[in-house]
Design goal:
heterodimer; A: about 140 residues; mainly alpha; 5 helices; about 0% strand; elongated; B: about 190 residues; Four Helix Bundle (Hemerythrin (Met), subunit A); 3 domains; disordered C terminus
Chain lengths: ~140, ~190
């Protein structure tokens, strides 16, 4: 695609979309939103870039390998919080033991877990888009 | 009263779009209509005060699903092929299933009934104790990430598993599949 208007608008939009994703991610405790929605919105920014500037440019900006590692890291972060609470003497995903004050522990646990969800969902959505979009391009890898 | 009018309008449009999606042969238009369907569903969730669900429906249903459907379309055909055979069998199956489902709703508690089983089990504890035990304003997040943290972990693993499945099916090395020489227009989903 070589539409100047689309390219310019996309360039203008991508940064706000990503910031909005971060807002949804870290404001999920206070308003609607959370890891799932934030991850999808972040992925949407990258997918928009991929649609307008081509899948190859998107892969150059955020390569496959990093995303695969991030997808696994997100799930492991979630599971790791559970293991950490077990090591600290609690039950699996019992966030209360993460800090002296159980309520603070809950806050830490929720933020970490939501971050794990956000990273995993964003990486997975981008990778699935890459997988679909790359099929149309013969000499892509 | 106002909410009833809004609800009825939204539900009416949902039915109209559903029929249009079934009738239309152009799959590109059908995909876009499904995106609008999701957005309308999200609006209905907002009128039900389920903003978190509405958010998810708008971003996943209207956003990602539409993009993935369009990506699939760019790899396959754009116009739906006609169905061979009689159409009354599928109509009969749909009608019977729909009537059974409607019949089943008569056994369900009334909409918004405070005595419904869902409001008697753990939900009162979540609503009353969340402020003290977890102390974040959004109870949805405290239920999702803390009280029901195990379920959410399961959901995250499901998303990850979906990725593994897609990569196994579509992400193979290019040399192995023979479809690479069918030249589609550039940019895959563009």
């Amino acid at each position: 695609m070589n539409h100047t208007l689309l390219r310019t608008m996309t360039q203008l939009l991508i940064a706000p979309i990503m910031v909005f994703a971060l807002y949804v991610q870290f404001h999920g405790d206070f308003g609607p939103g959370g890891g799932f929605q934030a991850g999808v919105i972040f992925a949407a920014a990258v997918i928009l870039y991929g649609i307008v500037f081509g899948i190859r440019a998107a892969k150059k900006a955020i390569p496959d390998g990093i995303l695969r590692a991030m997808a696994a890291f997100g799930v492991l972060l979630y599971g790791g919080v559970g293991v950490a609470t077990m090591l600290l003497g609690g039950r699996y995903l019992e966030y209360g033991v993460l800090a002296h004050d159980p309520v603070h522990g809950q806050h830490y646990g929720i933020i970490l877990v939501e971050l794990g969800v956000g990273i995993a969902v964003a990486s997975v959505m981008i990778l699935i888009f890459y997988a679909f979009a790359s099929r149309g391009e013969p000499d892509d890898r | 009263m106002m909410l009833t009018i809004i609800d009825l309008t939204l539900l009416f449009f949902l039915v109209v779009i559903a029929i249009a999606v079934v009738r239309i042969k152009d799959l590109f238009a059908a995909t876009m209509l499904l995106g609008i369907y999701s957005l309308l569903s999200a609006s209905i969730f907002v009128t039900l005060d389920a903003v978190d669900v509405a958010f998810t429906e708008a971003s996943v249903g209207a956003g990602i699903s539409t993009i993935l459907a369009l990506s699939t379309l760019s790899l396959t055909a754009r116009i739906e092929k006609g169905h061979p055979g009689p159409t009354w069998i599928p109509i009969l199956v749909c009608a019977v299933t729909g009537l059974t489902l409607i019949y089943a709703t008569f056994d369900m508690p009334w909409f918004g009934d405070p005595d419904a089983p869902i409001h008697q089990h753990v939900a009162p504890h979540y609503l009353e104790a969340s402020a003290e035990e977890i102390d974040i304003p959004n109870v949805v997040t405290s239920v999702l990430a803390s009280y029901r943290g195990f379920d959410t972990f399961g959901e995250t693993v499901v998303v990850f598993t979906a990725l593994v499945a897609v990569l196994l099916l579509l992400g193979g090395r290019k040399g192995e599949d023979n479809e690479s020489n069918q030249n589609k227009d550039e940019g895959g989903a563009s």
